Amino acid sequence: MTEAEIYKLYKGVYLPSSLHPPECLKYYEEFAFCKDDILIVTYPKSGTSWMQEIVPLIVSGGDPASVETLPTWKRIPCLEAQKPSSTFHFKRPSPRMFATHFQYNMMPSSFFEVKPKVIYLMRNPKDVFTSSFHYHKMATYLVKPGPQSEFFRKFLDGRVIYGSWFDHVKGWLNAEDKECIMYISYEELIMDLKASVTRIAQFLEKPLDAEVIEKIADQCLFKNMKKNKSSNYSMIPANLFDETKSKFLRKGIAGDWKNQLTAAEAEHFDAVYKDKMKDVKYKFVWD
Ligand code: A3P
Fold this sequence. Notes:
Radius of gyration: 18 Å
Strand order of the largest sheet: 4-3-5-6
CATH topology of the domain at 3-124 and 162-239: Rossmann fold
Shape: globular
Largest sheet: 4 strands, parallel
CATH architecture of the domain at 3-124 and 162-239: 3-Layer(aba) Sandwich
Helix content: 40-55%
CATH superfamily of the domain at 3-124 and 162-239: P-loop containing nucleotide triphosphate hydrolases
Bound molecules: adenosine-3'-5'-diphosphate
């Protein structure tokens, strides 16, 4: 298949065609939010799956069944990948939980009217690049990344799925109604998972006892998610994920870009970052 067949352009960004056929996008555009919905928003490879473990455990008060009975993508479905026939995903007790990789300006009109709760998870873009490069080698529904230098150029230009990291982050940071949005980073989760779980629980208005927080943080450790077959993506067939190339839960660390980028690439990345993020006031943990 050619790149043009594997990806489609939607609202100016590339999407994997197989995940987002027209009926899914139509369903997404017409989707009606409820005020108590919880939406996890990420640029791909920022730790979406981690948040898809943390949030259900908070909502369930730490009950492990919430993450051990349904695989990640069913427990918190990706909103823009649902067929109208899969509406059973949405007939669930509140709060309903969804994930999306879409940019702020791609959200459906109901989102801006209803203003559900959003957890916007960010990650150092050099680590996002690194994780994404490996993911593109193993995910057979994506265009092969080619040599690192080629994928590097595409990533910085935003010629990758879900568009530019810079546009994504800036769009969501500049969102209106910020009181409905919690901003958090992968690096904060890495640095202090218990404190992060506490913050998220407060935002979700689900205060939890210290021992429940402790239990949730433990369940969400990389090594423990690796053991949970509902969370380690082992249910994905080998024709979609070629685990001989890489794993979905690959390294789970901050700063792996240092093992991936050449010195010249890191320098170039920093220069592009400095220019594109020059007007952003938000203090990122990795800056
Ligand atoms: P790496 O490829 O750097 O290991 P997403 O879910 O958005 O696709 O992001 C996947 C990235 O999040 C992968 O990064 C994965 O290992 C990491 N991740 C998922 N769960 C994690 C956890 N419990 N702890 C640390 N990293 C985690």
